[in-house]
Amino acid sequence: MEKLLSISLILAFFKNLISILLNLHRAQLLVALVDAVLSLYFWWWCGLCPCTVDIDRETTVSFWVPLHRRIGKPVLIPIHGYGGNSQWQFLAQVGPLSRSFNLFIPDLLFFGKSSTKCTDRTYEFQARCIVEALKRMGVGKFSVYAISYGGFVGYRMAKMYPDEVEKIIIVSSGIGCTEEQKSKQLRKIGRDPLELLLPNNPRDLRTLIDLSLYKYDPFKWVPDFFLREFIEVMCNEHRTEKSELAEHLLSGSAEKDPSVLTQETLLVWGDQDEVFPVSFAHHLKKHLGPKSRLEIIKDAGHAVNIEAPGHLNDLIESFILGE
To answer: Start and end of every AB hydrolase-1 domain (predicted)?
Structure first.
């Protein structure tokens, strides 16, 4: 049986690779090949397979789901932010987490293969689509781990579905920040945030990377032509819709006074975060009250999932499993 499964995974990988090579007008070659290798890693090493769920005739949500759902292991829903799809953002974490949890990893709408014809760009719509897809896959109760933009969506999931969401981890997300905090931070960054969230060129992408990382830049030696291909694949597909999502994120009406969650909440921040500074974390912790706790990771920037994946995984596991 295991041999048949291995053969099927290899065939699926090469089928995906051939599909990439036959559709180069849609995806640049090098980034697409890396994406295919990541898919093989998710399949082979992490025991996950791709799945798409049609919510209705307008909306489809793509996931990585367990090949074999294990009884007794809790369900964890990691939710990514801007800067690529779920594979790229959770690469450093998915292996260890897949050994402790049944992972259902969605791509947010307009990322990966998730899409909708609906014009709703709110966090609530993203949250509703993810939970509806989970229900159709037979997932009842689960915990949420959400980073950056995904934190806004995860927060809404916890608010809208208190019976389904058991615990929530929010990492480096500007939920509940005041207009004064937001304006001050945007002035400090000194750039149009839309240009950084959806870069048009390698220079802007490198600026975003520098802003997100503190200790080191793994892309320092990556040539510009690869970054251009990354932008073409990850940013330019559904660019208009992603811009509309970002505009909602930046609008004053998007996040005025978030509800206090009923679930236990873990907040995790890098102490050198230059996107959403640690002051945002303390503000949110005060708002959430005694059912929340804040963990600060030393010498880490905004992208804690890249700079300190092992430490972050330990915090996630101990929080959810109660160890």
So the answer is: 74-309
